[in-house]
C-alpha cells in the first residue's frame, strides 16, 4: 500500500487520516499540535516534527490546512515539504484557498517534477468521519487517475474540474452557496420564532418541502437545540466568503448575495463566534429580534402593541445631529436644507430623533453624526411621527446600512450611554 504524508489534523484532517489508516494505507502525520495525532498513533500511524519529514518517504502528501498563508508555509516554507520532495511524488491540497495560491504551488512543484492537485472537499466533519466527502479537483487528470485509490478511501464522489486552480474556483463558488443557504435557513427560523411559532415544527416543513437544503439538514437541528459544537467553523466560513469576494472582484462580477452573507458572518466574528460552528450565526438574528430560536415564546399577537414595543431594548441618548432634507423640484431636480436634530433612542429597528422642524412621513433624510463618531452619513426613512409641543419625534428606519457601520454605530452609542450614566455608590 502507498505511504501517505498527512499534514493538518484539525476538524477535517484527523478523521480523514483515520479513514486512510482503516483502509490499509501507511500514514506519516504532522500537526503543529502533536497531541492531535494521539488517536492516529493508536491506529498505527507515525508522527514527525516537521512537514518536510512527513513528505520524505511518502508516495502522496495530503495537506488539510486553514488558510492560504498556512498552506504556503507548510508546502513552500523553510521547513516545508518542498525541501524533501523527490521527482514522481504527488501533493494533494484539500484546503480551501484562492485559485492563485493553488496555481502558484502547482508551478513551484512542477519545477521539481512533482504533481500537484488542488482538491478541496465538501461534506464537513460528518463526511470526513464517514468517508463520504466530495472532491472537486484541479490539476493534471493523469495524476488524479494514478491516485484515485487514495481519493476513494476518503470520499464517494470525485469530480475532475480542469487545470490547476479549477478545484479552488469550484470550492469558493460552492461555499458561496453554503453561506447564502445557511442564512436563508437562519432567516426563516427567525421569522417563525418572532411570530411565536415552534421552530422545530417549522423545520420539519422545511425538510419535507421545496425550501430543503443540505444546510437545513446539517444545521437545522443544531440551531433548534442550540448546539454550536464545531462541524465547520464560522471563522472558516467567513474566510471562504472573503476569498470568493476577491474572485468576484477579479471577474468584475456583481455578487450582492455574497456581499450580504459576508457582512452577516463578519458580524458573527465581531461577536466572538469564529471558533463555533457556522450555525452560531443565528445569534446575530437573535440579538436583532430579542429572542432565542428554540425557546418558546408567546405569540406577539397576544401582547398589546405597546408592550411589544417595550420589549425592544432601548438606550436613552442625547446626541446632537444634523439632518439633510431634500425636496423634489421641477424638471427632476432636488433642493436641500440642513436642520438640527437630537438622537434620543436607538433600537433594533432604527433611530428615534427629535427636531423642531416638521418633516413628512416616508421622507428620506441623511443623518450626520458628530465628527467624533467617525461615522459616514446614514440614510433613513421617516416611518413614524409624534408631535410634542413645538417639537416632533421621528421614528427613522435606516436603509442600506452595511454591517460594519451598524457595529460602529452601536459602539459609539454604547460609549455615549456609558459616559452619561450616573455614577454608582
Automatic annotation (TrEMBL):
Question: What GO molecular-function term can you cite, just one?
Answer: NAD binding
Annotated 3-hydroxyisobutyrate dehydrogenase-like NAD-binding domain ranges read 165-284
* Taxonomic superkingdom: Bacteria
Q: What PROSITE patterns does UniProt report for this protein, alphabetically?
A: 3_HYDROXYISOBUT_DH (PS00895)
Matching entries from Pfam families are given as: NAD_binding_11, NAD_binding_2, PilZ
Question: Sorted alphabetically, which InterPro entries does this protein's record hold?
Answer: 3-OH-isobutyrate_DH-rel_CS, 6-PGluconate_DH-like_C_sf, 6PGD_dom2, 6PGDH_NADP-bd, HIBADH-like_NADP-bd, NAD(P)-bd_dom_sf, PilZ_domain
GO BP annotations, alphabetical order: organic acid catabolic process
6-phosphogluconate dehydrogenase NADP-binding domain residues: 3-162
Would you indicate the residue range of the signal peptide?
none
Q: Where is the PilZ domain?
A: 308-414
Concerning PANTHER family, the annotation shows: 3-HYDROXYISOBUTYRATE DEHYDROGENASE-LIKE 1, MITOCHONDRIAL-RELATED
Family, per the entry?
Answer: Belongs to the HIBADH-related family.
Protein name as it appears in the record: Tartronate semialdehyde reductase
